[in-house]
Each structure stands twice: as structure tokens, then as C-alpha cells.
Design a protein that fits this description.
about 550 residues, alpha/beta, Rossmann fold, six-stranded antiparallel sheet, six-stranded mixed sheet, 18 helices, 15 strands
Length: about 550
């Protein structure tokens, strides 16, 4: 639900901070007071395009932010988590407009594309009376609402699973059928390639090992020469070797120990150095003896590497990928060798899944038809009470061009607003007031299945009055028991039904005009309802009437 909105320098709003509550809240005020401005500000938070004229005159920028409680909205939390925008139970939308026409959008403090803000907004707020934010105008939402009302979630999950498996098997069947078109030529090529790769018998890590051996063999003479030189300098030279020099110095220090034993550490380190040199010399002799100087073996290594690299170039892969390639080609060859059997299996699987899908889809269609009849009757009856005498509602189901993971039905909400008039798509209903009241009727019947937590009704009372206006108000109040509902109204019969009441008014001086919005307490509500009831002069009877309307709405809760 919407908890709070903060507006700065937007249109004729200087600064405004509003806290909202659950249930039904009505917004009233004189014509032109600025009720539509609040809707415009909220629309920007829902992804509407920005207009530089929206920035308050004399200001460089406008900023609007709103805080929503999303603790019980699993779909919203999943969406935020997937976008890495999640927060703990709350969601903050913010929009900044510059006077030069630039705009930036933020979700939980992170800048986002406007499309993301629009997607999220459609899950949080539904505005009835303006097509751009009305979810019921969208075919997917119409289908979803029908399926939610009919409790189809388990059936839809089954259909989605079967549909996915069916498509997967069809794709595999198509691939195998394509491969079988040139089966004989492909099999001959695969057999040749598999034989060639299997004859290579490449072992895991063999290429790297051969490359290391090749490098050593190619440089064997230089390695042997350098090893002999180092060995001679370290140990083998009869005169001047490092080992001999260290030995002489060690004896000198050893003689000095009888006079000063503090030189013991120096003697020990020299002794250790001599041992290290002896061990190094031993290692170098072993390395020199092991150096392979076999030209025939060197040629074998070169030939083996050349064969490996030739095959890797031929197949356009790295040498280390030849083993994996061999396995893949062998698998493809086995599939083609058993193509007839595999085709039969796949064709049977596709046929079985097709039948299973059609069975589930028919079950879903039958249930949708049954539920549609029930909804058609209930919503049509509700329309009569909302000032659309003779109006009818109908959910039309037609067959889709192709199967989908939501069944075979194309679903569209249709309405006839007067007796004898043809049915038209809900999205093409002309009157904003009628559209809002039809939406109210639908929302009332399907209230428990609604996924969008906050509903805003604008123009819902357009063209009605008297008893029908009171019924509209009562419907809104009942809807407010399960959802957060806002209604912008000019009718006291509607405003008196609200759980909460806000007044929009203008303040002017010689320099500027600005819009203010306040929450009304009971006596203030009496005054506002009296203003809406009365003419130029408000009498005691008018005030008593207003108080009676408010008292009766509380008693009927």
C-alpha cells in the first residue's frame, strides 16, 4: 500500500508531505483546486513521461517520492530482487524533473530506466478513469483476473510444465529430422572424423606435456652446456670453484673459534652453504645425465604435435578441445545410427505431450467459460446499481492462433453500457465515468483475487447523483475493506462513505498560488460535506444533513 508521498516544486505545489492509511480515502475540493495535480505527480512515479512545464515557476527542479509497504507483495519483492533493487519490506520510488526537460527515476535509491519504474508502478497502483494506468485495459491482466477468480493456479502450473516439455521435444524432433535429410552423407563424414580423432588417441593433458618436452629437446645442447659450466664453477673445477673457496674460508673461521667462539654462527652458515652447493651439484649432474639427446624421439614429439595441431585447425578448435569434440561427434553419430528409433521415440513423446496439453487446455477453457458466465451475471447486476441501467458485461473467449503456456483462449472484456447497444471492448469504452464505474463493479466482484494493492478512482461519479452516487460510495467503501482505495469526487454521497477524507484547496497571495492538501477530522468533514451539499449559503439544515450522512456511513460499516 501507499504509505507516504512527498512533492517539491511540482506545478502549483510548493511542498507537500502526505501520510496515507488503508481502506477508502476520498479527496475533495473546489473545481480547479488541484486534485488532478496530485494524480499527475503520482503518475510520474508510475512512469509517465515528464514535461518541463510541470516544474513550479521559478524553480530549477521538481522532485516527487513515494513510499510503499510491500511486505505482503511476493511478486513485487521477486521483481525487485531480480533487478537487485530489493529492500526490507518497503519500496521508495523517486522522480526528479529539471526545468530544462531532463528527468531521472530512482527505485530504492538506485537510478533506473523509466521502463523499470513503469513496470514496477503497474504492480503497485491501478488508476481507474485514465487508460494509461488501468490494468484492466490489458489482455494479460484480464486473463489473469479471470484465472485468479477461478482459482486456476495449479491447473496453469501443469499447463506451463507440459507446454515447456512439449516445445522442448518438438525442437529436438525438428533438429533430428533436419539431420536425417542428409543422413547418409553426414554419417559417412562423421564416421571418418570420429575414426580420425579416435585413432589420434589423445590423452587428457597430453598436448601441454608434449609442448614442454619439445621445448626441452629443442634446447638440449644449450641446456647441457650451461649445466656443465655451472657445475664446473660451483664444484668440479680443481682450482677456483665456489665450493673450494668456501672450504678455505670455513677453515680460517674454524681456526678463529678457539680465540672467539662468537663466530660459531658464521662457521655454521658457511658449512650449510657448502652442503647446499654439494646438493645443487648433485642435482645438476642428474639433470645433465637425464637430458635426452635422441634425435629420433625429438622427431616423434614434433610429428605428434604437428598431427594434433593439424586436426585442431581442421576442426577450428583448440588442441585441448579435441577430446570433447570427439565425444560430441561420436554422440551425434550414435544418434544418427539410431535415428529411426530415436525419431519414433520423439514422435511418440511429442504426440503424447500434445494430447496431454490439449486435455489440460480444454479443461481450462471449460472452467473459464463456466466462471465467465458467473462473472458476467454478477458484474452486469453490479453495473445496474452503479447508474448503467441496461448495461451488460461479457467476457468473450476465442481460440488463439497458436498454443501458449496459458492455454488456447484469447480473453477480452466486453461491455454494452445501454440497452440495445452492441458490445464493445472495455478498452474502447468512451466515457471516463462509465469506465471507472465498470472497473469498480469488476473490482468489487473480484476483490479477493486482486493483485494490485492500491486503487485510485477518478471520475467514478461522473454523470450520476442522488441514490446512485450513494451506492457508488458504498461500493467503494466495501472495496476499501480489502484494498487501499482512493477516490477523487465532487459528490457528498461518495465523500461521506470514506474511512478517511482529505481536502484539496488553493492558497493565494499577491505573489503566488499554491495547492495544499490536509486530512480532515470529523467536524472538518461535516464542514466539507456541507460545502459540497449546499449552495452559496450553508444553513443549519445543510450541516445537519451532512452530519447525518457521515453518521449513517459509520453505522453501515
Amino acid at each position: 500500500m501507499l504509505n507516504h508521498i512527498r512533492i517539491r516544486n511540482f506545478a502549483i505545489i510548493d511542498h507537500l508531505d502526505l501520510d496515507f492509511k488503508n481502506k477508502l480515502t476520498t479527496l475533495t475540493g473546489e473545481t480547479g483546486a488541484g486534485k488532478s495535480i496530485l494524480l499527475g505527480a503520482l503518475g510520474l512515479l508510475l512512469g509517465d513521461r515528464a514535461d518541463s512545464d510541470s516544474v513550479r515557476s521559478g524553480s530549477s527542479k521538481a522532485e516527487i517520492s513515494a513510499e510503499f509497504d510491500i511486505s505482503d507483495l511476493a511478486d513485487v519483492n521477486n521483481w525487485l530482487a531480480n533487478k537487485e533493487l530489493d529492500a526490507d519490506g518497503d519500496c521508495l520510488l523517486r522522480r526528479r524533473l529539471s526545468s530544462d526537460g531532463r528527468s531521472r527515476a530512482f527505485i530504492n535509491g538506485s537510478p533506473v530506466p523509466l521502463q523499470d519504474m513503469r513496470q514496477l508502478g503497474e504492480m503497485l497502483v491501478d488508476i481507474h478513469g485514465q487508460h494509461e494506468h488501468q490494468s484492466l485495459m490489458k489482455p494479460d491482466m484480464q486473463r489473469q483476473l479471470l484465472d485468479d477468480y477461478a482459482q486456476h493456479s495449479k491447473l496453469l502450473d501443469n499447463i506451463k510444465k507440459v507446454f515447456s516439455d512439449w516445445n522442448s521435444k518438438k525442437d529436438k524432433l525438428t533438429e533430428l529430422q533436419e539431420a536425417c535429410k542428409d543422413k547418409n552423407d553426414r554419417v559417412d563424414l562423421l564416421r571418418y572424423q570420429v575414426t580420425e580423432l579416435e585413432d589420434l588417441s589423445l590423452a587428457e593433458g597430453e598436448t601441454e606435456k608434449l609442448q614442454n618436452e619439445h621445448q626441452i629437446l629443442a634446447n638440449a645442447d644449450q641446456l647441457r652446456e650451461n649445466t656443465s659450466s655451472t657445475l664446473n664453477n660451483l664444484y668440479d673445477a680443481e682450482e677456483g670453484s665456489i665450493h673450494l673457496q668456501l672450504s678455505k674460508q670455513a677453515r680460517i673461521i674454524e681456526d678463529m673459534l678457539s680465540k672467539d667462539d662468537s663466530l660459531s654462527p658464521a662457521f655454521e652458515m658457511l658449512s650449510e652453504a657448502m652442503v647446499q652447493i654439494e646438493e645443487t651439484a648433485s642435482l645438476l649432474r642428474a639433470y645433465k645425465d637425464d637430458l635426452n639427446n635422441n634425435p629420433e624421439y625429438f622427431q616423434e614429439v614434433e610429428t605428434r604435435l604437428a598431427t594434433i595441431h593439424d586436426l585442431s585447425r581442421k576442426h577450428h578448435v583448440e588442441p585441448e578441445q579435441l577430446i570433447e569434440l570427439s565425444n560430441q561427434l561420436r554422440s551425434e553419430l550414435d544418434d544418427l545410427d539410431n535415428a529411426d528409433e530415436n525419431l519414433n521415440h520423439l514422435e511418440n513423446d511429442v504426440s503424447t505431450l500434445n494430447k496431454k496439453y490439449n486435455t489440460l487446455a480444454k479443461k481450462l477453457t471449460d472452467s473459464r467459460i463456466k466462471t465467465s458466465k458467473k462473472l458476467n451475471k454478477q458484474i452486469s447486476e453490479s453495473m445496474q446499481t452503479l447508474g448503467m441501467s441496461g448495461g451488460k458485461f461479457e467476457i468473450q473467449l476465442s481460440k488463439k492462433d497458436k498454443a501458449s503456456n496459458s492455454g488456447l483462449d484469447q480473453i477480452e472484456y466486453m461491455v454494452s453500457t445501454n440497452t440495445g447497444q452492441p458490445f464493445k471492448a472495455l478498452a474502447k469504452t468512451a466515457s471516463g465515468g462509465e469506465l471507472a464505474r465498470i472497473s469498480l463493479a469488476i473490482q468489487m466482484i473480484t476483490a479477493q483475487q486482486g493483485r494490485i494493492p492500491t486503487l485510485i478512482f477518478d471520475e467514478v461519479d461522473s454523470g450520476v447523483g442522488g441514490g446512485i452516487a450513494e451506492i457508488v460510495g458504498k461500493h467503494l467503501r466495501m472495496l476499501g475493506e480489502s484494498r487501499q482505495v482512493f477516490c477523487i469526487t465532487h459528490l457528498p454521497q461518495v465523500a461521506s462513505q470514506a474511512h478517511h477524507h482529505m481536502q484539496v484547496y488553493k492558497q493565494s497571495n499577491d505573489k503566488e498560488t499554491r495547492t495544499e492538501i490536509i486530512s480532515l477530522e470529523m467536524e472538518q468533514r461535516v464542514d466539507e460535506i456541507s460545502r459540497m451539499l449546499g449552495g452559496i449559503k450553508i444553513t443549519k439544515q445543510t450541516i445537519d444533513h451532512a452530519r447525518d450522512m457521515l453518521n449513517r456511513s459509520q453505522l453501515n460499516s
